[in-house]
Amino acid sequence: MRRSTKLAAVVLSGSLGIASLAACGAKSNDTSASSGASDGALKVGMAYDIGGRGDQSFNDSAARGLDQAKSQLGVAVTEADAKTGEAEADKETRLKNLVTAGYNPVIAVGFVYQAAVEKVAKENPNTKFAIIDSASDTQPSNVTSLTFSEQEGSYLAGVAAALKTKTKHVGFIGGVQTELIKKFEAGYRAGVKSVDPNMPVEVTYLTTPPDFSGFAAPDKGKEAAQGQLDKKADVIYTAAGSSGNGAIEAAAGANALAIGVDSDQAAQPALAKYKNSIMTSMVKNVDKAVFAYIESAKKNQIFTGVKNFDLKADGVSLATTGGKIDDIKSKLDEAATGIKNGAITVPTDPSKI
Known about the structure:
The protein has helices at 14-23, 32-35, 58-73, 88-100, 114-123, 150-164, 179-195, 218-230, 243-253, 286-298, 329-340; strands at 26-28, 43-47, 76-80, 106-109, 129-132, 143-148, 170-176, 201-207, 235-239, 257-262, 278-284, 306-309, 316-318. The longest helix has 17 residues, at 179-195. β4 (106-109), α5 (114-123) and β5 (129-132) form a beta-alpha-beta unit. A 7-stranded mixed sheet has the order 1-3-2-4-5-6-12, with helices on both faces. By secondary structure, the chain is an alpha/beta fold. α1 runs antiparallel to α4 (88-100), α4 crosses α5 (114-123) and α6 (150-164) runs antiparallel to α11 (329-340). Helices cover 38% and strands 19% of the residues. The protein contains 11 helices and 13 strands.
């Protein structure tokens, strides 16, 4: 979450640095040839959440921001992947290896890194860290939180779902039942309710902590979606990382509609065969947050504290690929304006709806 002291640009120490990164699953791109960076360039390390680059969702959005920083800012980068079912110590080791190899700042993708980031940051006060989707008030001063108003974008997704359903019955699937994913649920249900207070919203969570496999289990996503389809829900919104791919597949097979998350999933090559069934996606512009954070580090004016990206700041939005929500644009614009000017307050707790 913060700081504007000058960042060290440490040179990776040959085979020892590469070996330590390889041990934690890192993919080193830290050479002038691969990164386009000159010697002494800012070195940025990124530790992904479960699913990693290629999940067609959350991690891929973060990766786009890293790629943009690499090409436009000339920074050197490396990436490290997480593994399903890994121990907390594995996350700590991954972050420590990035620090040891001279990467500064280090960006942790996802709230699952909260405890590890807090510990490693305290042990390395001269290294700057950013964590996406976590804003603990116990984090040390060298950690910056990059957060989003997911509930606001999800509210718009709920409005769209309620306006587009033919059965007057919609669904929500959460990957893991955490406070973060509950924000998606709360916003979505509130959006549906704003259109039709009596419309049923099926809610299914794939796993509960400490089991975080619900973010990387397309088979579970498909099964959950099929269960909701069997109950006549015909628009399903899934906030579950790559598990959402399975839900999209199920919706497509039933000639129903899916709402993607984090990235514009109708535009994802890996989901191309299902694009006609993806009504929209609630895009969380993690790429913009990642790029903005790295740019602030590059300028020695690094973000501090909590940096939140809401609807007004274009931190969240609805994708329009495929034109499936063009006919309800005026209604969506009206809702978005209400959120931006404060006329609509979107809840973050489903129990308050």
